């Protein structure tokens, strides 16, 4: 009976270990990046970026979505321009959507022409690449969702791409006024990856470029329970395309967020602390991958917030 019981217990222990193995294997090492990237999204619609007052007293509002012109469906800015050129009539019927309501507005062709510069079908910005999975060639970046400033919502997009960006100048952060990176997107270097998802913890997609020599080695992911208050490093780019490590101090940790303070004198002198465009910058502690920068404190720009990498990966597309 004792032998039978020992056999059963050994079997259960072995089964438990086998069941745990896939979970442990999923927490694999990732390559911490820190490169500045240009992010471009091709939107599903064309919309207005500014309020416009027509001659008849009708207002077009920023965020109005152009659905059709002269009964022809509109999805891209190129379709708007093509239809404008081909139309022979002087009056154009524009079907637009505003706050879930559809309406038709008659606009003179000559009045519509100068408005074309206020039409947009794509959005872009600058952020920081967080990680690349060396096995699946998937990446994550930004650490937070892209919100379109015109519609004040996550943009609906049909496709998206990321590119390397080169930092040309820094506007320093000061209390009450966040600084930012002045960058140029390097389209000539080719697309680095596609964008599959834009969610609460960043953008995710497939890395389509080759994994270049000189990238950091993959690092083990640190669990939130292992993150300690104390010294850490921030990987980011503040000049050209060079990724540098700067000293920070983690000041508070919980399961879903952590807080930190920039202690590196060089970074504070050059940037004033955290900048717009640093979102997604990796945080490293004791040679392990901790998380990604998400926010700065406007009144104290040397202080910031981040999410543990384990939390960011929960929103990664499966």
Q: Can you tag this structure with a few keywords?
A:
318 residues, alpha+beta, Thrombin, subunit H, Pdz3 Domain, 16% helix, disordered N terminus, Peptidase, PDZ_sf, Peptidase_S55
Helix and strand composition category:
alpha+beta
| CATH topology annotation of the largest domain | Thrombin, subunit H
The N- to C-terminal Cα distance equals 46 Å
User: What is the architecture of the largest domain at the second tier of CATH?
Assistant: Beta Barrel
Provide the succession of SSEs: HEEEEEEHEEHEEEEEEEEEEHEEEEH
Overall number of structural domains: 2
Please state the average pLDDT score. Answer: 87
Radius of gyration: 25 Å
Uncertain spans: 1-27
Please tally the β strands and state the result. Answer: 22
Q: How does the SSE layout of this entry go?
A:
Elements: H1 2-26, E1 31-32, E2 36-48, E3 52-53, E4 59-60, E5 65-69, E6 72-73, H2 77-86, E7 91-98, E8 101-108, H3 109-112, E9 119-132, E10 138-141, E11 157-171, E12 179-185, E13 193-194, E14 197-199, E15 202-206, E16 230-239, E17 242-253, E18 258-262, H4 265-271, E19 275-276, E20 282-285, E21 288-297, E22 300-308, H5 309-314
Write structural notes for this entry:
There is one protein chain. A hairpin with a 2-residue loop joins strand 20 (282-285) and strand 21 (288-297). It is built from five helices and 22 strands. Strands 1, 2, 5, 6, 7, 8, 9, 10, 11, 12, 13, 14, 15 and 19 form a 14-stranded mixed beta sheet that branches. It has a six-stranded antiparallel β-barrel with strand order 16-17-18-22-21-20. The chain is 16% helix and 45% strand. The chain folds into two domains: 30-42 and 122-314, Beta Barrel (Thrombin, subunit H), CATH 2.40.10; 45-120, Roll (Pdz3 Domain), CATH 2.30.42.
């Amino acid at each position: 009976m004792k032998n039978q019981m020992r056999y059963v217990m050994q079997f259960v222990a072995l089964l438990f270990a086998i069941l745990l193995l896939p979970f442990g294997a999923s927490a694999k090492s990732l390559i911490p990046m820190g490169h500045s990237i240009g992010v471009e999204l091709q939107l599903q619609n064309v919309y207005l970026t500014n309020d416009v007052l027509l001659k008849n007293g009708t207002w077009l509002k920023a965020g109005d979505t152009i659905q059709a012109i002269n009964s022809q469906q509109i999805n891209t800015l190129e379709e708007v321009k093509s239809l404008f050129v081909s139309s022979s009539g002087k009056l154009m019927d524009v079907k637009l959507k505003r706050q879930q309501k559809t309406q038709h507005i008659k606009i003179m062709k000559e009045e519509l022409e100068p408005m074309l510069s206020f039409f947009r079908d794509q959005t872009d910005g600058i952020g920081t690449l967080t990680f690349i999975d060396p096995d699946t060639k998937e990446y994550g970046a930004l650490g937070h969702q892209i919100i379109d400033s015109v519609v004040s919502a996550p943009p609906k997009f049909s496709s998206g791409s990321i590119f390397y960006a080169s930092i040309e100048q820094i506007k320093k952060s000061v209390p009450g006024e966040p600084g930012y990176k002045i960058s140029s997107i390097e389209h000539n270097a080719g697309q680095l990856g596609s964008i599959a998802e834009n969610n609460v913890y960043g953008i995710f997609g497939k890395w389509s470029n080759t994994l270049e020599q000189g990238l950091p080695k993959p690092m083990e992911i640190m669990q939130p329970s292992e993150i300690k208050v104390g010294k850490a490093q921030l990987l980011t780019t503040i000049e050209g395309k060079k990724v540098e490590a700067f000293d920070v101090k983690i000041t508070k940790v919980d399961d879903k967020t952590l807080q930190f303070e920039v202690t590196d004198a060089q970074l504070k002198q050059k940037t004033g602390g955290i900048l717009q465009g640093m979102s997604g910058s990796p945080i490293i502690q004791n040679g392990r991958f901790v998380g990604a920068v998400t926010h700065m404190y406007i009144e104290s720009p040397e202080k910031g917030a981040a999410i543990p990498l384990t939390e960011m990966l929960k929103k990664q597309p499966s």
